[in-house]
Amino acid sequence: MKIVAPCMECQKELGHPSFEPIFADYYEGAVAYIECSRGHKSAVLLQSQKFEILLESAANALLEGYTIEAASSLSAAYERFFEFSINVFCKKNAITKQALDETFKQVSKQSERQIGGFLFLHLITFGSNYALSKRIPELRNKVIHQGYIPTPEEVIDFGELIYQEIYSITQLLKSRMQSEMQQVIMDDLQSKSEKIPPETPRATSTGAMFFSLSMAEQKRDFHEALASYKDAKEVIFGSVPYMKLLNKAVSLYSKLRGGV
Ligand SMILES: [Zn+2]
Q1: Is residue 172 part of a domain?
Q2: Full-model pTM
Q3: Which residues of 83-114 are buried (b: 16+ CB within 10 A; e: fewer)?
Q4: Total domain count, the chain
Q5: Cα 22 to averaged position of ligand 1 atoms, centre (Å)
Q6: Cα 245 to ligand 1 centre (Å)
Q7: What range defines the domain where residue 86 resides?
Q8: Ligand 1 center–CA 121 separation, angstroms
Q9: What pLDDT does residue 255 have?
Q10: What is the CA(210)–ligand 1 centre distance, in A?
Q11: What value does the mean pLDDT take over residues 176-185?
Q12: Is residue 6 domain-resident?
């Protein structure tokens, strides 16, 4: 996975952005290690939840025409979203991390068990049934278990089903358990930060743009989210040449001042 990040150490030294666009990779830990042209090494922590990263991975794969990868990432995002929701419900019930981890370990390899856990937590918390989409497992099983290569249209339909499930549950969590949801995000950020070597400077990024809980509003459907993400990517890539020019100007100005 990739992120474009500024060097915050340059910002601290210069008192303004260096405008150097730094492209960095990140993986499971959701931390990108960057090095700017001035030699600052730092870590960028992504605030994004795993399901948000997987949704963005799906969007990128789909935009590039890799449909089986897109469907597979969507399916993984769907599963990890239930894990996130379970964390929020447990936070609401003041369950300790250790107790939750011990229980989750027993269901971690079987997503059906996790979805079952979610359904009962929803029932107990809200006193009503949550009706899951019955169509999601069909395409998921074809892609994951039979190596079926879907068309872009099929992936978009699949993405819409998954997006609607995630969107509607997110709205529910936001309206009923906003502070618990924020706490889960902060706990996750803390545990990511603890894995970075202590002496490494770090900055936090909101991370994924396709679907982000850090935004006040989320796009209402998959089509809208995909179109908006495509536009945002074009703006970022389109601005890279200008950022490089600005960065050159900043470097020149610093040298003239005899600074860094
Ligand atoms: Zn720097």
Answers
A1: yes
A2: 0.93
A3: bbbbbbbbbbeeeeeeebeeebeebeeebeeb
A4: 1
A5: 10
A6: 16
A7: 68-183
A8: 46
A9: 81
A10: 27
A11: 96
A12: no
